[in-house]
Write a structure and sequence with these properties.
Helix content: 40-55%
Order of helices and strands: EHEHEHEHEHEHHHE
CATH class: Alpha Beta
Strand content: 5-15%
Number of domains: 1
Distance between the termini: 39 Å
Structural class: alpha/beta
Number of helices: 8
Strand order of the largest sheet: 3-2-1-4-5-6-7
Length: 264
């Protein structure tokens, strides 16, 4: 690897995978480590975070695992405090946590709507609230938020809470980017398209006949003829977190195989 993140410390929220295979956060945490970063892998599921950490350590990288609920302020404070005690700084904040719950405004319960916003964008508010003062004191930092092309396009599935909350992620990212641009801190968002990940299969599985049907139809909807995978998100994240992207901030980067260029 090129060691683009050598000597940097990365805090990855949502670093586990909800099922077998590679989720976006898991792949990104491993990619950060492969590029030289020391990684704190955080997930709601401690075993999932530990699995990611074990992969990194087996490859000779440096990683610790922690459990946290990113919608709970005290949990975020605990994670950030641990990272500072462990490494003394946070150079990269990666916000990967998110979930799509099916339903439009009529079908979706108010409770699910509230939870969608609390999880998908509220978690960014909490993590940035705790990490930004530390990055400002350092005079540097990179924030990478994972949004979705569902934030800017109708994809044929009704999940109003997901679409609205990911749209909020976009503007949240750009507001942070502008407020902190003069303080050495960058903030960018990645907008994944149709990705073949455990989370996508879990959240959308009920809308297809079976997993094979899901994969076939989502592949067919992509201009490239195939969905992307978690590594597509991981390597885009590495670039945005690295000094190679030192003049890039406030960008909403689609990683979608051209899907947002489609008319139909």
């Amino acid at each position: 690897m090129t060691q683009r993140l050598k000597d940097k410390v990365a805090l990855v929220l949502g670093a586990g995978s909800i099922g077998p295979g590679w989720g976006n956060g898991k792949a990104t945490a491993v990619a950060y480590a492969r590029e030289g970063a020391r990684v704190l892998a955080v997930d709601l599921s401690l075993p999932a975070a530990e699995e990611t950490a074990a992969i990194i350590r087996a490859e000779g990288g440096v990683c610790e695992a922690m459990q946290a609920d990113v919608t709970v302020d005290a949990d975020i404070a605990r994670v950030v405090a641990h990272c500072m005690a462990w490494q003394g700084r946070i150079d990269i904040l990666h916000n990967n946590v998110g979930m799509a719950y099916l339903g439009g405004p009529v079908e979706m319960s108010e409770e699910t709507w509230d939870h969608s916003l609390k999880l998908n964008v509220g978690s960014l508010f909490l993590s940035c609230r705790h990490v930004l003062p530390l990055m400002e004191a350092q005079g540097s930092g990179a924030i990478v938020n994972v949004s979705s092309i569902a934030s800017i396009r109708w994809l044929g599935t009704a999940y109003i809470g997901y679409a609205a909350s990911k749209a909020a992620v976009n503007q949240f990212t750009q507001a942070i980017a502008m407020q902190y641009a003069g303080k050495g801190i960058r903030a960018n968002a990645i907008l994944p398209g149709m990705m073949n990940t455990p989370t996508a299969r879990a959240s959308l599985g009920s809308t297809f006949a079976d997993e094979a049907d899901l994969v076939a139809k989502r592949n067919a909807a992509c201009p490239t003829g195939a969905m992307g995978d978690a590594w597509d998100i991981a390597w885009a994240s590495v670039f945005l977190a690295s000094d190679q992207a030192k003049y890039i901030t406030g960008v909403l980067l689609p990683v979608d195989g051209g899907m947002t260029c489609k008319v139909v």
